[in-house]
Amino acid sequence: AFKANFAHDPTGRATLEQVTGRSLHDFERDWQAWMVKRTPPAFNTGPDGPFLGVQFAQGNDGLKIELVVTRGPADTAGIKVGDVVVGLNDLDVRDQQSLMPLLKEFKPGDSVVLKLRRGETYLELPLTLGKRGESRAVTRPTTRVNGATPRR
Length: 152
Description:
It is a single chain. 21% of the residues are buried. With 152 residues, this protein is an alpha+beta fold. The protein has five helices and eight strands, in the order H-H-H-E-E-E-H-E-E-H-E-E-E. Helix content is 26%, strand content 25%. The longest helix has 14 residues, at 24-37. Strands 2, 3, 4, 5, 6 and 7 form a six-stranded antiparallel beta sheet that branches. Strand 6 and strand 7 form a beta hairpin. The chain starts with a helix and ends in a 21-residue tail after the last strand.
């Protein structure tokens, strides 16, 4: 409807009102009320939640691995500093705001598939999630990125 009406309704307001059967004012008021009642997305998995064993930096197309925890789940799965996480199982992941709510749905010991970009190659690596509170692994960079040690 938006594309069909674009010539005379480029903002989409009339189309939105037609499709929803509601005025823009009413639609916006109800949307804001719905947003306020929503539970905010998780930004971490909690102290005993599932643990990947990495630290992230934001990449252009996903979450760049900045640090891999030695002997942690990611290290065991073969994930390397510089890899970019672009998916979890069948879902795309581009930032921590999209990853953490998905990851929080799992438990330590669950198996997932991380979709990665390593250079120009895309990989799917199976990984068994660890438990954050039980991790005894040592955190250190496994390799250098651009000749520099990743920050902690």
